[in-house]
Amino acid sequence: MTLTSRTFHPPKDTEPLLRELLTVQVRFMLVGGLAVQHYCPQRTTTDLDILIQSCETNATGVTDALVRIGFALDAEMVRMLFAPGPGPQQITLHPTIPADILTEGEGFDFMAHWAQSDRTQTLGLPVHVASPQLLIEMKSRFMREVDAQDILLLQRFEAGQAGRPKSAASLRDTGA
Q: In which element (H, E) is residue 58 found?
């Protein structure tokens, strides 16, 4: 996991959600367009995609966080999000909150990807951003036009990073 000082800007409307997820100690990573923006500032987005580690503790935490920010919660929605299954699950909080919450399916090693995530701050909050490799893997599944563009941006970012020494702003962090 790397600590960086890159700047990126999620929709301001998502700050309460991020703050509450952190308060109740839900383990998550930012994914989607905002995560791409973290590595490639020219990318713009109007929403927030959050990948949650699928476990009972996080299911309870997500439920608590949503209730705390006044989101009208359907308990069945959250149960389905965290139900074991072969593929990814998603709940959309639009239009109330410009955000989507996702979990991955069986065989996805969240902790391995967590270890490769980029630790940074946004809106004054500490967050983890999925690695470029994970973002490329996730976007390759859908291949919408925007996903293809994101993959190209991330590949260019990775090519530009190859062989570069770590900057003073990029510190190695071995904590979880």
A: helix 56-68
